[in-house]
Amino acid sequence: MHANPPLTRRIPPELTARTIRRHVFWAAAITALGGLLFGYDTGVVSGALLFLHVDFGKLSSFDKELVTSLLLVGAMVGAFFAGKIADKVGRRPTVLMTSVLFMAGVIGAALSPNLMSLVVMRFVIGVAVGSASMVVPLYIGEAAPPQIRGALVSFNQLAITSGILTAYLVDYGLSYTQNWRLMFGLATIPAAALFVGMLFQHESPHWLISQGREEEARAVLHRVRASTDIEAEIIEVRELSKKKTTAKDLFNPAVRGMLTVGVLLAVFQQVTGINTIIYYAPTLLHGAGLGNSAALLANVANGVVNVGMTIVAIRLIDRVGRRPLLLGGTTGMAVSLVVLALAFVVGGSHLTGATAIIAIIALLVYTGSFAIGLGPTFWLLISEIYPVGIRGQAMSVATVANWGANFIVTISFLTLLGTIHGSGTFLLFAFLTIVALVYFQRRVPETKNRSLQEIERDLFRSKSSTAARPK
């Protein structure tokens, strides 16, 4: 593994605010290529499913669910181990290893001689996706100044949605050739760019401080902070790192409370149905009477909405806060799911005319509501609410829960659709979304404009108060 670029020889001179901002945004942009790959590799399968029969013959619903969902099993594995690796060897080496896994997986998928080989390679890609989904927001969150941390971590969500949109465009562009192999294989390009780009990035300053490498951390911080903020941040992180945190601390009362919030945010993000739309929207639209190319083109419109509303979220999340976006977006999701279910009640399983148009509009509103709320706020919050010593492991727990819920929903969606039909399926998602909304209102904290150290101090203060409370 390549070593970090040397930083300990000298502290760079005071940088201008513009230069600091450029360093911060460049680090976020390079790392967010992991998010782009996350989005592309989860989204590209929606179009590829329509053409796998060209090489592998007719596929059953279970075959399609297997190709889609094995990525999610791999993502659970990747998310679980990435947290431990990131805490042990550093955030940067973990991103580099993730990029290598991406390259191996997508090349293997593109060259798969049979369905089982493709399933195995989708698992490998999933390990990389799970790792990226955990370590990218972790790295960006620790490198970014508090005032713009929300926007920069949410920039990873923009990269995810851009990856999904890119996948939709590639699917549509290659639909006339039915070249599903190229659909998968094109992900090699951003994977290679991520590897090369990370060779020129530095390790997370918070991780360096937690390892006692303060001179290196100071040099990194001089690139991404005003000099007046650096020493105070080092002292704060050093003091917090001295607290003997281990994996057992995940189950201490104060940490356990925030761990529960992160896990339930993760589960609700999935059981409210977003990835069924990402994976199966072309199948739904095809069932509604659109041809393959028309269904894929409508899916592109859905991707454009996803990206557009994520940009809106990035502009608002550090101004209005995490909670308003989370609560407002989840409300929009619930309303649109009810409308979508009613469209299936009125139009039956094969939508036509006005009911098909209403269903497509409801899909677009649902996606936009997710993109401004639960999409970016989940990944941002789990990068903010955990102590530095166990942040990687705590994020892993939440991320594994996210991918586990994703797997359960994905593997069962087509079966649900065939059993309780579109109306019942989307009413179920609407009910779960309302449950999520009630929980978010009661339990999710606001973290706007607070440093990671302030959030952690409050966590330990709460822990001390709990311990001191009379039994």
Question: Which features would summarize this protein structure in a list?
Answer:
471 residues, mainly alpha, Growth Hormone, Chain: A, 0% strand, disordered C terminus
Structural notes for this entry:
- With 471 residues, the protein is an all-alpha fold.
- The protein has one domain: MFS general substrate transporter like domains (Growth Hormone, Chain: A, Up-down Bundle).
- 54% of the residues are buried.
- The protein has 21 helices and no strands.
- Mean pLDDT is 84; it is low at 7-11 and 466-471.
- Helix 14 (253-271) packs across helix 20 (391-443) and helix 15 (274-287) runs antiparallel to helix 16.
- Mean pLDDT equals 84
Q: C-alpha Rg, in Å?
A: 22 Å
Number of separate helices: 21
Oligomer: single chain
The share of residues in helices is over 70%
β-strand amount: under 5%
Low-confidence stretches: 7-11, 466-471
CATH class: Mainly Alpha
Shape: globular
Q: In short, what is this structure?
A:
This protein is mainly alpha-helical.
Topology:
Blueprint (H helix, E strand, L loop, with lengths): L16 H15 L1 H11 L1 H4 L4 H4 L4 H29 L1 H20 L4 H29 L5 H25 L6 H6 L2 H12 L5 H6 L3 H11 L2 H16 L10 H19 L2 H14 L4 H25 L5 H26 L5 H20 L1 H9 L8 H53 L8 H17 L3
